Amino acid sequence: MAGVELRDMHRTFESAFNDHDLDRAMQLYAPDTTMLLQDGTELHGAEAIRSSLEAMFGVPGRMTMRTRYVVESGDLAVLSSEWTLVVGDETQSATTAEVARREADGGWRYAIDDPYASLHAADSANVVAQLEDANLGVIRNVARR
Fold first, then answer.
1. CA angle 85, 43, 81 (to 5 degrees)
2. Please, are residues 30 and 111 in contact by the beta-carbon 8 Å criterion?
3. Per-residue DSSP letters for the chain?
4. Radius of gyration of the chain from Cα atoms?
5. Which of 54, 56, 80, 99 could cross-link 112 (Cys pair, CB 3.0–4.6 Å)?
């Protein structure tokens, strides 16, 4: 299975999802791709990713994706998009972070796909804020001594 053009990666996933065409979406994933799920779980390999995406592709929703950037350096690239999924009255959005690799056929596939990167960042910001609050308490106690 051949990869796709670098600048078509987000558009390919969007159209594959909206057409419920999992096989087309899987063209984006190398056999050794790592994907991060929303809860931070790492999936390793295209078969694990396919299993995860099967449930998602069964959802009767509509996805839109807007590419934020594509930065290519040799056979590697960093990409990011903003996506929104609407299912009935429910909407979910996130910003992605991806690393793609040029394959021997000249097409591109994901090496790392984090479709929920902005949601992890929000969780990280909450942890940092909690640590800062805890550290302020420690600093205040030390200052009083």
1. 35
2. yes
3. ---B-GGGHHHHHHHHHHTT-HHHHHTTEEEEEEEE-TTSPEEESHHHHHHHHHHHHTS--EEEEEEEEEEEETTEEEEEEEEEEEETTEEEEEE-EEEEEE-TTS-EEEEEEETTHHHHHHHHHHHHHHHHHHHHHHHHHHHH-
4. 19
5. 99
Distance between CA atoms of residues 10 and 98, nearest Å? 10
pLDDT, tens only, 108-144: 999 999 999 988 755 555 545 555 555 554 444 444 4
Q: 10, 7, 50: which is closest to 30 by C-alpha?
A: 50
Q: Dihedral of the CA atoms 128, 133, 138, 144 (nearest 10)?
A: 150
Half-sphere exposure of 26 (CA within 13 A, CB side): 18
Residue for token pair 């994907």: 35
The Cα 53–Cα 35 span in angstroms is 11
Question: Over the stretch 44-64, which tens digit does the pLDDT of each residue have?
Answer: 999 999 999 999 999 889 999
